[in-house]
Amino acid sequence: MKQVALTGIRQMQLTRANEPTLKSGDDVKIRLSSIGVCGSDIHYYSEGKIGTQVVKYPFVVGHECSGVVEATGENVKNIKPGDLVVIDPAVHCGTCDQCLAGRPHTCRNNKFLGCPGQIEGCLGEYIVMPSFTCFPVTGKMNPVQAALIEPFSIGVYAVKLAQVADENSSAVIFGAGPIGLSILLKLLADGISNVGMIEPLEYRLKKSKEIGARYFINPEKQDVEKEVQNQEELLVDVAFEASGEQDAVDNALKILKPGGKLVLVGIPPSAQYTFNMDLMRRKELTVVNVRRQNHCVEEAIDLVVSGKADVEKMVTHHFSLDETPTAFDIVEGYKDGVVKAMIDL
Ligand SMILES: [Zn+2]
Ligand SMILES: [Zn+2]
């Protein structure tokens, strides 16, 4: 089968590999339909690592995908050949303390699709995954929507963890990339429409306007604190950080009202943030950390199927598998107005 492997920093090769085979009665072989290019894939592409996760070449990345079931092991009951499936890239063990406590996303033995040293990614024609990671959506959505469920479910989970009080609550999002926009889509689906977007790239601000943010701030041209205050005299209830920038954290502490919540979703380039503790303490702010998603795939699917969240609005580019190197180059360089790029097979 065709496969695209990272072979060095900013180096990719279209190669031939053996098709993966079922290794247990619970496995499912999937022919991939659509694959999203994620910011984390780009880190592996341009830096060869994320934190302590280092790529050993050659390695196949990619974890946001949908596909059609080709074969199933003898124990698989929930899906059958021919089904279009959403694939949850996280494979948990099911037996550790975290799994038993209902926290499979922080499983001690978690293996993630396209994560170095864990599971080879999905940038190829076929993958094999355990059946519990597959959610059938035949006839309910198209393959692109199905591949977008992974990033969208992170937005769904972030909003869930934020426990936004009600529809009158106010929120801001730092970063209008696919995760920031996923948070926006979920807030709007919940009826929370008083949402400001803070983002330095004008074309991404425009995208958030198209999706339904109420006001827009460019932190490179405007004073974030002043602009938010113009919109919300008493400041905002929840700030979602989806950019990984220290500046965003600094601004978030300034624009949150007393008792407000800062929800950290973005991955900072270094492992550290600093917080103005004087502000944090005086306002008694809560900080919420988000690790991928937990039990939100089904809800994300429901929101897309019901039409409450039009995830395809995030997509700006489509490429073939052969064009993957071009797709990565464009996403890495924020070129050509790219927000979400999809590889369609
Ligand atoms: Zn991703
Ligand atoms: Zn576990």
From TrEMBL:
Alcohol dehydrogenase-like C-terminal domain residues: 178-305
Cofactor(s) named in the record: Zn(2+)
InterPro entries: ADH-like_C, ADH-like_N, ADH_Zn_CS, GroES-like_sf, NAD(P)-bd_dom_sf
Keywords: Metal-binding, Oxidoreductase, Zinc
Domain of life: Bacteria
Cited PROSITE patterns: ADH_ZINC (PS00059)
A Pfam cross-reference name: ADH_N
GO molecular function, one term: zinc ion binding
Domain Alcohol dehydrogenase-like N-terminal: 26-137
Signal peptide: none
PANTHER family linked: SORBITOL DEHYDROGENASE
Family: Belongs to the zinc-containing alcohol dehydrogenase family.
Name the record gives this protein: L-iditol 2-dehydrogenase
Organism: Tangfeifania diversioriginum
